[in-house]
Amino acid sequence: MAKKNINEMSFLDHLEDLRWHLIRICLAVIIVATLAFIFSRFIFKSIIFAPLDMSFPTYDFLCSAATYIDVTTTFCNEKIPIIIQNRTMAGQFSADIWTAILGGFVISFPYIIYQLWKFISPGLHDNERKHSRGFIIISSLLFFIGVLFGYYIVTPLSINFLANYSVADIVDNQIDISSYIGLVRSSVLASGLIFELPIIIYFLTKVGLVTPETLRKYRKYALVIVLILSAVITPPDIASQVIVAIPILILYQVSIYISKIVVRNQKRKEAKNV
């Protein structure tokens, strides 16, 4: 049966359409997650547990930088003082499953965005669809950059700080595998979603909820929110918070510019229709 025109669809028709898009998204995530589960040994050894090795690129770079300026740092230690352990019967299996699902979501993200775009795009005008052709590529690129930022910056900074933090020498860091993977998962996903800020601002500007003037007016409040957000997703040391806050502030500034372009195009369109 041919798909109905957007103007002919009822509320239930929209829900049915959304249901099929969500089903396709779930199938894509499940298929990729299954492949990730099959290769889980490689994923855990080469990706998940890689930040526990002091040869990790981030530690190597920061150690070289600290040595250059003659500063003593834990980034130059021989090893990270933690032991990963499992204390529940299904702990390792659950870690395997959730890691596979995370991998399925991350790798399938472009397809997820494509399906959401297929649901939204029929409600846009032809010229709006034309100017938004790069939406899937840009949003996917921003997400993957955020994921890499979370994996290579936020995750190792958090692990290094928390592993070397000690209240007494008699306390050993024997970390449950679920806690460790939770840190990696939250760092990667939070960073990936935060890097979608320009896309979110674009759509909020399109529907009139945000303007460039509003973003500029509340820039100082945004700075405070960014610092709080940086403190949440990173260990509570100033250096780590600054490292995370800088790209978020750059994204905020880029979002202001994007909002300005959207408003300018809308005014040109209104002037042309008068």
Q: Can you give the mean pLDDT? A: 83
Relative helix content: over 70%
The oligomerization state is single chain
Intertermini distance: 40 Å
**How many structurally independent domains?**
2
Largest sheet: 2 strands, parallel
Order of helices and strands: HHHEHHHHEHHHHH
Strand content: under 5%
Subcellular location: Cell membrane; Membrane
Protein name: Sec-independent protein translocase protein TatC
Membrane topology: Multi-pass membrane protein
GO molecular function, one term: proton motive force dependent protein transmembrane transporter activity
Secondary structure elements and pairings:
Elements: H1 11-38, H2 40-48, H3 57-68, E1 83-85, H4 91-107, H5 109-120, H6 126-131, H7 135-164, E2 174-176, H8 177-194, H9 197-206, H10 212-217, H11 219-233, H12 238-273
Parallel strand pairs: 1-2
Structure, described:
This protein is mainly α and 274 residues long. It folds into 2 domains: 177 residues, no CATH class; 78 residues, no CATH class. It is 73% helix and 2% strand. It is built from 12 helices and 2 strands; from the N terminus they run αααβααααβααααα. The chain has a two-stranded parallel ribbon. α5 crosses α7 and α7 runs antiparallel to α8. The longest helix has 36 residues. The protein starts with 10 loop residues before the first helix and ends with a helix.
